[in-house]
Amino acid sequence: MVIKVPYVTAVTTLFSFGLIFGFGHLRDYFRAVLRFFFFAAGDDSPAGTNSKGYAPICEGPEDFYFRRFYRRMQDCFGRPIAGKPDAWFDVVERYSNDSNKTLHRTKNISKCLNLGSYNYLGFAAADEYCTPQVIESLKKYSASTCSVRVDGGNTKLHVELEELVARFVGKPAAILFGMGYVTNSAIIPALVEKGSLIISDSLNHNSIVNGSRGSGATVRVFQHNNPAHLEEVLREQIAGGQPRTHRPWKKIIVIVEGIYSMEGELCKLPEIIAVCKKYKAYTYLDEAHSIGAVGKSGRGVCELLGVDPADVDIMMGTFTKSFGSCGGYIAASKEIIDHLKHICPAHIYATSMSPPAVQQAISAIKVILGEDGSNRGAKKLSQIRENSNFFRSELQKMGFEVLGDNDSPVMPIMIYNPAKIPAFSRECLRQNVAVVTVAFPAVPLLLARARICISASHSREDLIKGLEVISKVGDLVGIKYFPVEHEKTTSVEKLKKLQSAAAVAAAMSSRLQSINQQQKQAASKRRSASSSSSSALHQTLALDPQLPSAATVPYVTAVTTLFSFGLIFGFGHLRDYFRAVLRFFFFAAGGDSPAGTNPKGYAPICVGAEDFYIRRFFRRIQDCFGRPIAGKPDAWFDVVERYSNDSNKTLHRTERTSKCLNLASFNYLGFAAADEYCTPRVIQSLKKYSASTCSSRVDGGNTLLHLELEELVAKFVRKPAAILLAMGYATNSAIIPALIGKGGLIISDALNHNSIASGARASGATIRVFQHNNPAHLEKLLREQIASGQPRTHRAWKKILVIVEGIYSMEGELCKLPEIISVCKKYKAYTYMDEAHSIGAVGKTGRGVCELLGVDTADVDIMMGTLSKSFGSSGGYIAASKEIIQHLKLTCPSHIYGTSMSPPAVQQVISAMKVILGEDGTDRGAKKIAQIRDNSNFFRSELQKMGFEVLGDNDSPVMPFMVYNPAKMPAFSRECLRQNVAVVPVGFPATPLLLGRIRICISASHSREDLIKGLEVISNVGDLVGIKYLSAEQEETTSVEKPKKLQ
């Protein structure tokens, strides 16, 4: 079934696309002919080719589409903004001298009505209650925690927001994430796995699609918002069971959205929940666009449609829309949230939410709940409801084809014709109304639209102004596909007409979406194959002679470590066995259900080896992780004391804090503390731009700050161009699939970060692993893979990508970059280097391992880095050639769909980089870099002298020393904390099971006295626990007296 549009519209739309693609292919054909006869040397290489003779990075249908279609209208996307996303905002004017291929900014600014941002309740503007509290949190906690939640990034604000979110949405518990897009893409793989079934709405968001693909589960799609078809799919899949084996599914999860972001349509939640209950399927609800925006008290579609939140098993939402902040959350049962906190990579490895962003969300929710002492929250909710329904009604009366339902603040207007997309956008902008046009790949190729987003901050005069302009431009462009409704038309008739049009549109979109299902099934098979390859990451540990293993440590240590784990796992399995026996004989009704089971009779969410490890091992030591922090991550910080009354299963906070030496955070240059240059500028940016852009970079989230930082990053790392992403973890996990896909080869270091492993698995490329930091084995692997080609077909690889890290985060070891680059050049493989822990921290001017090891940055094709460590902020970047960066800006989902970096976080990086470069007028940057180098080398040298087995290289601020024994990790951590030194123990799954360690991170903000204090405590505790596995250097003084002598 197709959307019923006028015949002429359908014909002209198809004809327009036919012309564009036909002439585009002709131009490419004649270009290839001319190049063959006249430019054989490659003087006129087409877009996407590489003059070095490498396989092209940018190729395929997407590259053709962007070169021949998108560039014609790219001025309609990513317009630079010079202020906060309020009802009216300042848009920077641009021009092009090369047929829209390159856009140049001018000094001219137009004040436009903002109908494009997701600032639904107006909190992204200056707010009398929120803004002062956010500024105060910035002063108290800084712009970044410079750490993950399980290390030193768990502030009291994060804990408060989790509790507040759970209370707000009506669920027992919640977990936070630093980026809304990642909340879906990282959580879904943590909930389901191979042997499970995901049933997804055909129009679900791209983040849900990517999360489903990355999970390894079987994915099936039901027709958009069609409970009857959902029931049909469930019945068929339950009857058929798992592919090939036909075993019952481990678990089934149905994923829907509260308000569909491209349709503005409300989910038929009551009917879908009824179907899920009938077939014992879990319900996962994405409320990114509905939480805070609909419902009497802003609690989303559950409140609006009268659904009990207890009937929705997993509730997801973002803070980037209604709350004017950044990040996302998952709300569910305490068991599920506890499970996610222990196994979700984006929680374990990613830097936690920026404290000012956390405070913004807390303050906004309190205003909505009326806890600010006013009724402004209720007024905002009433205002957005009235504004949305008024605007929708008027658009329908004018004859526009408007999708969606009443109460929804999202209202798409269908455009269809490719020539009308830029025409509508440009003409609206000329009349000072900024709208968002949506085209492929965000929607199917033939279903382009303009998407209007309404805010509570819009006055009635604003809306009337917008309607007048849209009506005039609609007449001019010719997109009023429906006849103008007369006033005598009843509201019931109008609603039926709207529902009919929306249903037809949905059916067409569903059919277009279903075409990709065979490709998804093939992708899941590829993931199964690649996952077996990626498992070699841990297996290689036994092959690399440079890594610590049971064979290289004293015999007694190896035996006691294995014996300790044997006791833990042996008695753990015995306890589970006897528990099952007792339950079978005495508690058949489930009154004593074990961890992970569901009293409703559903398949358990929390099962498997990870669940056993968490219950029987991690809970014994969980007090050593996620310690709440009550201040900024400076050289010394305040740690909140906790206690447990149930054998460490539940931890309770006290009002007492301990001032501890911070040897845990990644605050390498000390910028995460109050800084005389950075902090005032960050506060000023917060006042000017607010805490969030409430939009993606391609819509209304591309501020002048973002553009300035991209240019500054490119200059700093000495690459032609750069792209920003809002989360460091997502920079790897989202960029790698945008660079390489099926038919490509990824060769990854055995000890690369989890974000790299996740991105490689999601790409669909073949994955091979080389022994850690071993260029000889890399060359052997490249030679073998190039000789054999792709699996089964033996065709040549489309492209080859070698991925390494500058400083390995769990080893503190520098990459052997010169040798690896030499191998990559020899075999024409691209080099991708992750500089998360090295950029800013090493090198004479802080430019990372390239500067430290004397490597030309031009020899590294793709350079990745995070901004959450040396620069005291959040987010990440990719720096590469202009062609690669342009390709990523047009194809990377987390750039297209994810909300852009928080403006204060952007300003923090800009200011920190300027200090490092000396552009603040001082030499403080040079002193910081010299200080961290001196501190790191001094601390490493003294640890080695004491007899600790320290990993890594000189100049690296990351220095792990081995613990091995599972009983010694918590003992060491607790005793250090008791003596006011905070360290991070690292165990499984961050490291292999038998290779537990303590990871020390050094900062330029540490004084020599701080380091001596830390060495003294570590030495004392090391003697007490017994982890000095190497012989101490012979001196007249003992290891205990040595720090005193140093002082």
TrEMBL record:
Coiled coil: none annotated. Pathway: Lipid metabolism; sphingolipid metabolism; Sphingolipid metabolism. It catalyses: L-serine + hexadecanoyl-CoA + H(+) = 3-oxosphinganine + CO2 + CoA. One of its GO terms (biological process) is sphingosine biosynthetic process. It is found in: Endoplasmic reticulum membrane. Its EC number is 2.3.1.50. Its main location: endoplasmic reticulum. The keyword Endoplasmic reticulum applies. Residues 111-470, 659-1018 form the Aminotransferase class I/classII large domain. One of its GO terms (cellular component) is serine palmitoyltransferase complex. Keywords: Endoplasmic reticulum, Lipid metabolism, Membrane, Pyridoxal phosphate, Sphingolipid metabolism, Transferase, Transmembrane, Transmembrane helix. The chain crosses the membrane at residues 7-26. InterPro entries: Aminotrans_II_pyridoxalP_BS, Aminotransferase_I/II_large, AON_synthase_class-II, PyrdxlP-dep_Trfase, PyrdxlP-dep_Trfase_major, PyrdxlP-dep_Trfase_small. Signal peptide: none annotated. Its cofactor is pyridoxal 5'-phosphate. PROSITE patterns: AA_TRANSFER_CLASS_2. Belongs to the class-II pyridoxal-phosphate-dependent aminotransferase family. This is serine C-palmitoyltransferase. It comes from Leersia perrieri. The lineage of its organism: Eukaryota, Viridiplantae, Streptophyta, Embryophyta, Tracheophyta.
